[in-house]
C-alpha cells in the first residue's frame, strides 16, 4: 500500500467523486489520489529534475516514496513545483490555486516538523525549503523567497553539507547530499542578480567536491572529482572529468562574482575596471577558465547534444539540462560584467572619466554574448531541449535589453542595425513569449521587454563616451530594470501597459519572424497594442497573495 493511501493523509483514491465535491481549500491541502500522484512524480522527473536543480537519485527516491519514508512537506513541494508542467485533468482550471495551496501547506509543515519542535533539520527540510523559495520568487513574492533561500542556506550549513559526506554512507547518499548542497548554492547565486542581494554562501567555505556525472550517480558508482578551490587554482589532474552539473556550478560561481561586482555599490578606493589588478579583469580571467571547460560556442553545443540522443532520437532531458544551463550562465556572466550602461553608472560613482576604447570594447563584448545567448536559447528549443528553467527568462530579458540598447544607439547615429542584431533580439523575445505559457514571471518580463524596448533610446545615450557623465535618476532606474531579477519578476503596473500602447515601434518589431506576441496562445496579430487589448491582457496577472504566509 502506498503511503498516500493511508488514512492519516485523508485521501481515498477509490472515492474520486467525493473528493471532487470537497471545498477547494481542503482538496488541495491533502495529497491527491494515487494515479494523480504517480503522474505528478513522472512530470517532476521529466520537466523539473536537473532543470537545473538536482535533489534526488530517481530510483532511490521512488523506492523511499513507496516505503513511506519521505515527509509530506517534501511531497507537497514537489507537487507545487510540477503543476505548471502538468495538464492532468485533476487540476484543470485550478493550477495556480493548487500550486499556492500545496506550497503554503508544505511551508507550514516544514515549520512545524523542523523549526518549531525538537526534531533536528535534515536533508528533506533543505530540499523542501529550496523548492519553496523558487516557487515564491518566481511568483513575485521576492521577499518571502529571499528569506526561504536564507533558511535553506542555514539548514545546509547546520547539516555541514558544505563539507564532504561521511564515507560510511552509500555512494548514492553521498552524492545526493552533494547535489542538495550545490542546488542551494546555485539558487543562492542566481537570485543574487539583484540590487542589495549578495550571495550568502562564500566559495572558500565550500569544501565539498563537485558533483559526479549523471551516469555515475544513476549507477551508484564512484568518480574522482575536485573542489571549487582546486578548480580556481588551476589544479585539475588529467584523470579528472567535469560533469555538466559541475560546469553549471563553476559558471554560477563566476556569476556570483559578476553580480557582486556589477550590481552592488563600488568601494570608493576601488580601481577602475581597466586597471590591471581590478576585479573586472580578475573575473574576466576566471571566465576564460570557464570557457575552456564549458566550450560555449554553438558548434560544440550541437556536437554535445548528439551524444545525448536516445534511439528514438529524443533527447535525454536530464543530461541535456545541465549542458544547456552552463552555457547560458556563461553568456549571462559576460552580459552582466560588460553591461555598458551599468559600467557607466559604476564609473560615475567612482568619479572616473569613461575611456572610449574601454566602452567600445564592452559594447562589442556584451552585444556578442547577448546575440549568442539569444541564439542558443532559440536553437535549443528548436532542437527539442527543455527551455523551461525559470532563470532562462532572466537570461532572455537581459540579452534582449542589451540588444535593444545597441540597436537604438545605432539608430541615434543614423546607422541601420544589422539583421543579426535585430533577429537575435526577436529570438530573445520569442523565448520569453514561449516561456510565458508556463511561467507567470516570464509573461511579466515579456511585457516589460516591450515596454523597455519602446523607451530604450534614453539609455542608449550611455553608449556614447562623449555623453554627460551625470546620469539622471530616471535613466538609472531604467538601467536597473534590465538587470535586477527581483524587479523583473514583480507585478507589471497598470500605467506601464498604457505606455506600451503609445510608444514608438520597438526595435523588436523591425524584422518579422512570424512571432505571436499574444500571451494567450492565439494567432491574432498584436503588433499594435490597442488600449482595450492591454486592459484585457492585464487580467492575466494576479497581484501577489497578500495573505500568503511568510
TrEMBL record:
The keyword Oxidoreductase does not apply. Residues 145-217 form the Xylanolytic transcriptional activator regulatory domain. The keyword Nucleus applies. It is found in: Nucleus. It holds the Pfam family Fungal_trans. SMART domains: Fungal_trans. GO terms for molecular function: DNA binding; DNA-binding transcription factor activity, RNA polymerase II-specific; zinc ion binding. CDD domains: fungal_TF_MHR. Keywords: Metal-binding, Nucleus, Transcription, Transcription regulation. One of its GO terms (cellular component) is nucleus. One of its GO terms (biological process) is DNA-templated transcription. InterPro entries: TF_fung (IPR050815), XnlR_reg_dom (IPR007219). PANTHER family: ZN(II)2CYS6 TRANSCRIPTION FACTOR (EUROFUNG), ZN(II)2CYS6 TRANSCRIPTION FACTOR (EUROFUNG)-RELATED. This is Xylanolytic transcriptional activator regulatory domain-containing protein. It comes from Clonostachys byssicola. The lineage of its organism: Eukaryota, Fungi, Dikarya, Ascomycota, Pezizomycotina.
